[in-house]
Every structure is written in C-alpha cells, then in structure tokens.
Design a protein that fits this description.
It contains seven helices and no strands. By secondary structure, it is mostly helical.
Amino acid sequence: MKIKDKSTLIIAILIPIAVGTLSALFSGNMSIYSQINKPALSPPGILFPIVWTILYILMGISSYIIYVSDSPYKADALRVYALQLFFNFCWSIIFFRFNQFLFAFLWLIVLIALIIVMIYRFYNISKLAGYLQIPYLLWCTFAAYLNFMIYRLN
C-alpha cells in the first residue's frame, strides 16, 4: 500500500475512532457488562476497548484505500461504509444505555450484513481493503453470539 496523502490517512483513521468514542460516551454506564449474566466465552471487559481500537484503525486504513482509489465504484462502497459505521455507532447505545438486548442483537445482525456488503464492495476495489475488514466481521459475529446469549441469560 502506497500512502498518497498522510493527512487523509490520519483523518480516515480518526473518523471511526471518533465514532466509537462518541458511541461509548452516549452509551452511558458501560459497567452493566460486569453486572449482567454472561456466557462462558465472555472476554474480560478490558479487552473490548483494545480490540475496538484495532478494528477502528483497520477500518480507517481500509476506507482510506478506497477513498484514494480511482475506482468509479468508490462512492457506493464508501456509502455502505458510512451506513455500517452508523449501525456500529448505535449498537452500543441500544445495548448499554437502553439495555435492549434483543433489539441490539437484531441491530447487530443488520450490521453484520452491512459489513459483508462492505467487504464485498471494498474487495472489488482493493483486495487489501476487503481483507482488512475480515477481523471486524469476525469480531461482530462473536459479539452477536455474546449479545444473543446475554439476552437469553438476562
């Protein structure tokens, strides 16, 4: 990957980090995670901000690759990216602030579908941009398992 514009890359990385940070702020008291019944495969709460920071950085790099591409399809790909980022933003608010575990699970299923569409569109423009989103898809799939089990247990 050749970096054409460092400031654009930095902005592309900061956008998903800012979205994630704002979502966490609007989500309110996330300590509910320590208070609710969780499935056996639940990771410790400290792991979540670490993983999400890495995923947001990968999202930013991937979106940068698409943004600087010469593809005539980049606008459509970036619209899907923005839409999935909106769904990502809302999920933690639905889950943590409103404790709507079933609705959050259904919202997450839509987010996963959007991530799959985004990966497909990114991959068609840049294989690397598509591949960089696979950890995000895997983590959200795992999150869906956790979300569903938390709904069942609580």
